[in-house]
Batch of 4 targets.
Target 1
Amino acid sequence: MKNQAQWTLPLDEFATENTQLQNYAEQLLVGKCMSSLGYDWVVPWQDPDFPAPPDVNAAGLRLFDVAIAGKWGYHFAPSTNPEQTQAWSDYGEHVRSLATEPNFDSSFDSCIEDARDGDDILAEQDGNNFLSGLGMQATSVAESDPQVADALKEWHQCLSSAVDFTVGKTPWEGLLPDSVLQRFGLVGEQLSETASAEEIAVATADAECRESSQLSEKLYNIEWAEQQKLVDENRDKLEAIRAAGIARNDKSREIVAENAPPAP
């Protein structure tokens, strides 16, 4: 079902692979093995549902509209579980600190091999690559459509009249110049965790211009139609990819249920 706000698309139903869940399952098995070898290796609890932040849809695509721009500008929305995110970051730092210990590489490689046991939870990338390829194909068609080209001109004129810098040709290619990216703390040495009032004003103007020019609407509708054609042409293969992804997720959930620490 169409939902522009969530940017739902026909290929979404086949993208069942939960790579975060699968990585967590593998890390739990590796952690168990490394602990048995004497390493201080504790994998922190993670919500196996891995809920997305409010600016990311169910398919993992980052969203952008007037409401999102008004809250977070061009910054990412905060994590739905900051404690969980911090725990995983701390875990990564700790693992990197262990890499200098003697025999670490051989121990880690051995544990990875044992965890995968000849069946890498993350080994099946052909399906993901096929889905990604189809998605990029549909996006390319939409972005090069004459209707979108006309909307882009209106969007560019609209936003250019609202800001004090040179706007990029498209929202997806160099929208903000480097100087503005640095001013907003999005790149450079002075990164900021939250958007300034100026950034929110610019992002909101951008989102409003995408709306008034019908750029977002035209992009979405054309991309939807193109994806639907690709689904119709490749349904058998897509059904197989969906089933395989579900099976790998089920296997990962079993591993998590057997090996994850208690929820805090």
Note: The chain has a mean pLDDT of 94.
Target 2
Amino acid sequence: MDVRIVIVFIISALCAKRGFACRQGWESNGTLCYLFSHGKSTWAEASATCLAIHSHLAVITSDMEQTFLTGELNQLHQNGTSHVQYWIDGTDLEVENVWRWAITGDKLTYTAWADGEPNNAQGGNCMNLWGRGGFLMADDDCELHLNYICQETDREESGNIIG
């Protein structure tokens, strides 16, 4: 096989991968894509919206993901974060103080709670990233209307092509 053909093939494959990672408007972090909502919804409405667009509320499993999301949110809200909150997928609706990811049912193995959280304030059973707490995790009333973060696994990595 001609070396030039191999080089063209490799370059084409790399370009295709780079351009296919996330849909327009979504932010990439490794093999994950995130959509930061402009509108506000209850936790259940936010979860349903994410599912409707072939994703789910964000699941945070490492310091690296937490740092990425915190950085993105700080960049989005440079004019102040004290009143900003974003729903993510965690909940203790099933058993009080046993936090699980709703999409999988798995217990949280990683947490980055803000100081004093979770505090079950206002019957808080749903997890959010709380601006006043440095966009660390907090619990709140699931019926509050907050922004939310949808997460999608890289479609090329997962083998799922969503169009």
Note: The chain has one domain: 22-158.
Target 3
Amino acid sequence: MTLYVLVTLYRIDPVVAGTLFLFALGANAVADLGVGVWLDRHPRHGAMLATAALAVSAASFPATMLLAPHGGFAVLAAMLVFRIAYAGYDVPHNALMARLAPEPRQATWLSRGRTIGTGLAGAVVAYCAHEIATARTIGPVLWTLSATAFMIGMLLVPLLARLPLIPPPPAQSGDGRLALPWPFLIASVTGIVALGALAKAVLHVPVFAGTAPIDAATMLLMLTAGRTLSALVPLRIADARMGLRLLGIAYLVAALVAIAVALSIAAPALLTLGLAMGVTNLIGWALLPALARGAKGYGIYTMASKLALGGAGLALATGLGRAPSFAPGLFAWFAMLVALACLAAALMLWPRLTSVS
């Protein structure tokens, strides 16, 4: 939403806006790791940290757009404050999953709720972005959105106070386990970058016969609908090993979906692409209570996810070069590379390569 408003309403150069957003996202990712390490050492500080961080992030969010007339440095400063502060809420509320749903089967249902909530939030943000683009004054819309997010976010603070985060088990002699299994983390990042880049890439395919038969708005609708519908996919994750196996199968199917998108950018293919993105995300979050060792594991996964989103944009920029859209035939090659990346992610999750002990 921020990039949309900066580029559409304030006419900031898309390259400049994207660079500012990438810097802020990088700072956010580093802050995620820092918050995770802090909460491992002070697990009872989660509620206090989340409250303060939510207040600062809600107060600074409108400034990420309203300061645009004052130049790029003002926007970057606001973005840094918002993103770094939000890490103080994001990591504790993610780590709360380990208390609310300690087993993968329970976490799957919680992850379904997150998926539906994310879809509804995306619809609200899209509506607000449309209202902002057609309004003369955007301040009231932004402050209303920020206040609403603050009140909804505060609903989780009492849970953090009543269910303080569990510190990681003490390291024993010869215990070489990390906060998260590396194959799971690398496979997740690879898949998020690949599928995220493909979802962004379809919006840059020129509309001519046989290539992009639907407009960008319909594409976004299909992708969002697919991600939301992923919450209805019947998944039964009994333990971490089964979850890793299912995640590998999901990335294998995602590779086939990428091939289908390479052949035809039609509504069913885009709906399936959104579904693949949603299912892999759902399984990944459902596995965290079983794989993460303390809040640091959640911080690392949150950090990796955000860096992967930035990596998706970088992959798209590499594929496009300086052109605003793909040349005829080039998009198909890009989608095939995405399919190979998804296949690599699936192979990384092969049972013999991924230890959960």
Note: Residues 96 and 165 are 7 Å apart (CA to CA).
Target 4
Amino acid sequence: MDGSVWVGLAGTVIGGGLSIWASVVAQKRQTKATRDLRIEEKAEAAVEEAITQLYVIKQRARDLPQDNSGFGAWDQDLAQLAVQMEPTVLRIRNKDLRERIEEVLGYMGMTHELTDYPVFGGSLMLPWAVCSYGLECLGAAVRGEPLPAPTEPIRKARAIDAHVREQRAIAREETER
């Protein structure tokens, strides 16, 4: 064989190898893009599901008991609905949004306190207003807008939460003495 045949053969082998390598790289990129798209679709679906679930919680928060005997069941319902929503919230990719919704859900576990501290802004409608804030955050995320600033109801809930934690810490210290 003369040199031109060897050069042609080497060129063919190198070209074929590069073609196979390029195909493998393109396939890996396509697989990653498909996987990323699926993850993003699941995250978007989680936000949409969270909107639906938080809306249900908000409606239940608005359905105040007519008398004090129904308050315990109402309180437990809100807490249970919040717990049921937690797996959905774990799929939300945006960390700031996830933390805000977790905060809102945490307050649904302390509706008794939110309604029982008028000095700090507590009222029967505070759990409902806190849920409204959560829905505002979820809606902004769906629309691709920045998350809203904390509203007055969420600031009131934070103040009540801080007060309750402080009271519990004082009580723990007293029992330890």
Note: The CA atoms of residues 90 and 98 lie 7 Å apart.
